Amino acid sequence: MNNDFYAVIGNPISHSKSPRIHSLFARQTGEAVEYTAIQAPLDDFAATVRDFFRQGGQGLNVTVPFKEQAWSLAERRTPEAEKAGAANTLFVDANGLLTADNTDGKGLVTDLTRNHQVALHGRRILVLGAGGAVRGVLGPLIAAQPAAITLANRTVSKAQALADLFRADAGEVELSACGFEAPNEAFDVIINGTSASLQGDLPPLSPNVIGADTVVYDMMYSLTTTTFNQWALDQGATRVLDGLGMLVEQAAESFRIWRGIRPETAAVMDELRND
Ligand code: ATR
Fold this sequence. Notes:
The chain has helices at 18-29, 45-54, 67-73, 79-84, 104-115, 132-143, 156-170, 227-234, 244-259, 266-274, and strands at 4-10, 33-39, 59-62, 76-77, 89-92, 98-101, 124-128, 148-152, 174-178, 189-192, 215-218, 239-241. By secondary structure, it is of the alpha/beta class. It has two domains: 4-102, Leucine Dehydrogenase, chain A, domain 1 (Rossmann fold, 3-Layer(aba) Sandwich), CATH 3.40.50; 105-245, 3-Layer(aba) Sandwich (Rossmann fold).
């Protein structure tokens, strides 16, 4: 049997764990899937995508810096992708339309609630950042029905704009925006969606946001404790989680969209931690 072809597309791409994750999924499920990494030229994303599908490719994951372009390029978007303003999953649907989906938010919520048994319903969540990464996860976070989501960002106007964008979807969820210095009491869950640590920076938060039971989640991952999680530990946090689980869960969701079968993720996460 011939394999079906999939890939992750980004720039740079050599660091991506997606080929490893999807090859583990393929082995586990017995699906005839081959998954590679494609570095698209920064000024030629659209042509690279079209070539991939013209040559028989079945599906793409999209990563930095092309998620917004993938969203624009698509002829059809799922509701999740529509609201996220960015796509991490592309495929051609039964009608031949290039379709965009976004599985990042589902990946985050699945990792928190299923893998780590962190309840979100009725809880108070502090989300740091207001860029594409945060926009991509807000829909599924709201759908988990926390009591409140506070969006804190360096540029307060961007947090405000994001809160306004999701206000209509928020329902009972209290959605507010502020700067990093404003929050001054303990949250149940804190999610870091800034890219501050890439510059070795920390958002200037009050230590009071960390309570004895606060769960801290950094959407970044690294082999050692992330800069943000180390800060949280230094303030007395006892549960800090990184984004490896989110990465594996968003991949599993893409695999399900493409193949109709959802891989088991726990064993794959163990393998990646041991790589
Ligand atoms: P991404 O796709 O990773 O979300 P982005 O859209 O550029 O990338 O957003 C980056 C986020 O990290 C923003 O919230 C940004 O804050 P601003 O909106 O004020 O730019 C935040 N960020 C980046 N560098 C930061 C730093 N050094 N300190 C604090 N926040 C930072």
